[in-house]
């Protein structure tokens, strides 16, 4: 089966610094893949390269189609979504309006035709996204009235609103408490089960190990391990590089059974 998202030998250099060094990674249909590693390992750089925000070498494929030469907007229209570490929202708009803006990716010619004819196309359908993330009650709340946890969920919802095939999440649990993190994990599993593949970058190991189907570990821009969460958690290279010696004796903070059974 063709992966939804794949990188082959993806590399990024900043001057003489190799931020990514030949990273091969796949996100399959119906998968939630975790990408972890120490600070500076190249996790956000991988997302930036895949989404076209930094120059890279190697290949990026979306459903088997090479998108490496496309600008970010074209990659987004092709079905690639992402979130950002900072939950930047339009604070003077409601949650529903924030999603509608994100979902409206009409081409310029279409906007010109609407301006000339006075006829607007159907507004983006954001209701299903609100329902999927369980934030329908927040639809008419102004973004500046949201809690940090709610803002994070709305950030994920904005990435989902255009109907992408795969979404890359950059530290969506940063700043959340344990209850908010567990709630986020439940919603991410619901999204993946609905048919949207996801890649999750986060330092919350309880979240990553509980909700992900597959975990890839980066160190100094290179993949040092990859496999099911339990295998990665016990991998000596991963323990030494990132998780720490206590990882072998501890369980994830989240109960995977409370979030959903992984395939």
Characterise the protein shown here.
By secondary structure, the chain is α/β, with parallel strands linked by helices. The protein is 35% helix and 22% strand. It has 11 helices and 10 strands. The protein has helices at residues 43-50, 72-77, 95-103, 108-117, 127-132, 148-160, 178-193, 205-211, 229-234, 236-243, 256-259, and strands at residues 5-14, 17-27, 32-36, 57-62, 65-66, 80-82, 166-170, 197-201, 214-219, 222-227. The strands form 2 sheets. Strands 6-7-8-3-9-10 form a 6-stranded mixed beta sheet, sandwiched between helices. A 4-stranded antiparallel beta sheet has the order 2-1-4-5, covered by helices on one side. Strand 9 (214-219) and strand 10 form a beta hairpin. Helix 3 runs parallel beside helix 6 (148-160) and helix 7 runs parallel beside helix 8. The protein is globular, with a radius of gyration of 19 Å. The chain starts with a strand and ends with a helix.
The largest pleated sheet is described as: 6 strands, mixed
Distance between the termini: 16 Å
Which percent range describes the beta-strand content?
15-25%
- Assign an overall shape: globular
- What is the helix content? 25-40%
Identify low-pLDDT runs.
106-115, 245-261
Gyration radius, rounded: 19 Å
Please give the order of strands in the largest beta sheet.
6-7-8-3-9-10
What is the SS-derived class? alpha/beta
Averaged pLDDT? 87
Total number of helical segments?
11
Total count of strands: 10
Query: How do the helices and strands follow one another from N- to C-terminus?
Result: EEEHEEHEHHHHEHEHEEHHH
């Amino acid at each position: 089966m063709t992966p939804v998202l794949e990188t082959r030998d993806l590399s990024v250099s900043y001057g003489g610094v190799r931020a990514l060094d030949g990273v091969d990674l796949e996100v399959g249909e119906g998968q939630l893949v975790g990408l972890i590693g120490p600070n500076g390992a190249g996790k956000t750089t991988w997302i930036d390269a895949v989404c076209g925000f930094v120059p890279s070498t190697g290949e990026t494929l979306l459903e088997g189609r090479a998108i490496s030469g496309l600008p970010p907007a074209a990659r987004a229209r092709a079905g690639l979504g992402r979130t950002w570490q900072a939950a930047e929202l339009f604070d003077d708009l409601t949650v529903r309006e924030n999603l509608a803006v994100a979902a409206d990716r009409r081409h310029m010619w279409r906007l010109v035709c609407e301006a000339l004819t006075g006829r607007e196309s159907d507004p983006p359908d954001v209701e299903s996204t609100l329902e999927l993330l369980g934030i329908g009650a927040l639809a008419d709340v102004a973004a500046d009235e949201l809690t940090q946890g709610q803002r994070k969920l709305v950030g994920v919802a904005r990435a989902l609103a255009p109907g992408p095939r795969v979404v890359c999440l950059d530290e969506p649990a940063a700043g959340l408490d344990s209850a908010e993190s567990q709630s986020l994990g439940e919603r991410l599993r619901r999204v993946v089960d609905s048919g949207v593949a996801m890649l999750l970058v986060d330092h919350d190991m309880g979240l990553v190990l509980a909700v992900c189907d597959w975990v890839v570990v980066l160190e100094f821009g290179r993949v040092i391990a990859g496999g099911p969460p339990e295998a990665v958690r016990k991998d000596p290279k991963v323990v030494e590089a990132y998780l720490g010696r206590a990882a072998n004796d501890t369980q994830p903070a989240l109960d995977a059974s409370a979030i959903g059974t992984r395939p």
